[in-house]
Design goal:
By secondary structure, the chain is of the alpha+beta class. 34% of the residues lie in helices and 27% in strands. It is built from four helices and six strands. It starts with a helix and ends with a helix.
Length: 151
Amino acid sequence: MTFQELQPKISAIVIEADKTRDEKLLAICHLLNENIEYYNWVGFYFANHENRTLHLGPYVGAETDHTVIPFGKGICGQVAESNSNFVVPDVSAQDNYIACSFTVKSEIVVPLFVNGVNIGQIDIDSHVIDPFTEADERFLEFVNQEVSKLF
């Protein structure tokens, strides 16, 4: 399924009346994981600005020990501080990468803003080296714009 075909499906999930926010986030994770071949782990992390930590929210994929990540640590922690997208074509070339699994070859993290504040991020791991393009970034920015309506 193309990004264009997925966009209305994301919007439809966000406006569903009979689901909680976490159920909607999980449904989005499933939709992306099942329809984009190289999205092998899809999840959300949410910021606790007081403690300067990220906390794992709904996700789909292999279990992770990384349920709390300090700001600045790993790709997700860096995005919490930079407020910018971070695309890692090859995680083995990253000094500040937190290894989740030997199967993960690349990662993309896009911050989630609500009223101009970075409240979290969507994190995607891939088992393929360098699959992410600018189209992935624009699509995930769209996903986060839709998700921001839940807050």
